[in-house]
Amino acid sequence: MAQINPSILSADFARLAEEAKAVEGADWLHVDVMDNHFVPNLTLGVPVVESLSRATDTPLDCHLMIEEPDRWAPQYVEAGAGSVTFHVEAAAAPVRLAREIRAKGARASMALKPATPIEPFEDLLPELDMLLIMTVEPGFGGQAFLDIMLPKIRRTRELISKHGLQLWLQVDGGVSASTIERCAEAGADVFVAGSAVYGAEDPAAAVRALREQATAATATAAWACGH
Question: Which residues bind a divalent metal cation (predicted)?
């Protein structure tokens, strides 16, 4: 089953608790953490994640677009995140960090910027619970989907299948009703959607519609036919 993770980067920051409740049918709530160093934007941090975890029953999927994730990522688990994603471009010791995140009780996820290839990290995949392929340059919401990432999603899915891993493959950036089917067909099964959900009149209905689209596309995708 496809999973939809609405991104609160597209929500009203003055009403985060209400915005979280508006998508309670979602699988996860995607929380973008930016430090104005690794990416050219500044968002929220540990205190807001703590508050959000108390305000919603939807598990939090924290995407750390920050420098020194080895130092900071464990604090997001302690703040209540159920999944923590660090960028391999910023991590000093990605295997050690993934193991620490898991040891603290969260799912460990690794993200790749658009220009970062997956192949050098094939041996790391068993250490992860999820891999995030960025389908825009990280740092800002509302960007247009990069179709040139679809072959990378396919190659990543092939590596996951090759090793027989139960590894979720997430895409983030420009995911909408017009792009989600292409992502699912290529091999993604977890979808971060920001403006496509929070820009809709009924965010919960938008989540359901996106999930149905992705699930239908997956059912006929070559990569899923053997599952």
Answer: 30, 32, 63, 172
174-199 confidence digits (pLDDT tens): 999 999 999 999 999 999 999 999 99
Average pLDDT, whole number, for the chain? Answer: 96
Q: What is the pTM of this model?
A: 0.96
| Residue 147: active-site member | no
Is 172 among the catalytic positions? yes
Binding residues for substrate are: 7, 63, 139-142, 172-174, 194-195
Of the residues 27, 35, 129, 172, only one is catalytic, namely 172
Of the candidates 178, 205, 197, 181, the one whose C-alpha atom is nearest the C-alpha of residue 10 is 197
Query: What does the block give as tokens for 176?
Result: 């909408």
Q: Which residues pair with 108 in a beta bridge?
A: 84
